[in-house]
Amino acid sequence: MDEPRTDGERPLIAFSRRTRAGGRTYYDNVYATSLEEAYSLYGTSAFEDAEIDIIEASEEDLARGELGLSWD
After folding, report:
1. 34-50 mean pLDDT
2. Is the pTM of this model over 0.90?
3. Are 42 and 50 in contact (CB under 8 A)?
4. Fewer C-beta within 10 Å: the chain N or C terminus?
């Protein structure tokens, strides 16, 4: 989704944003300095009635997000 940004002194953390909508789950990689910031920046969706979870990303999560995968 978004490329890592630079934030000066605070290191960025890779998060996996999982958006559930229309019977599918969409995976995106997002970067922020904290979980709270990640939800503030990326916690909404254009999908109607979407549910969003954001977690610290594992290598598998990053691979899914990089490929733009979605699952039923």
Report:
1. 95
2. no
3. no
4. C
Tokens at residue 54, please?
């954001």
Q: Find, among 48, 38, 37, the residue nearest to 17 by Cα.
A: 38
C-alpha torsion sign, points 2, 12, 56, 38? negative
Distance CA 19, CA 27 (A): 7
| Percent of residues, the chain, with pLDDT higher than 90 | 72
State the amino acid at position 69 in one-letter form: L
pLDDT for the residue numbered 57: 96
What was the pLDDT predicted at 69?
A: 79
Please state, in angstroms and as integers, the Cα–Cα distance from residue 20 to each residue in 9, 25, 61, following that order: 33, 4, 15
Greatest CA span in the chain, whole angstroms? 40
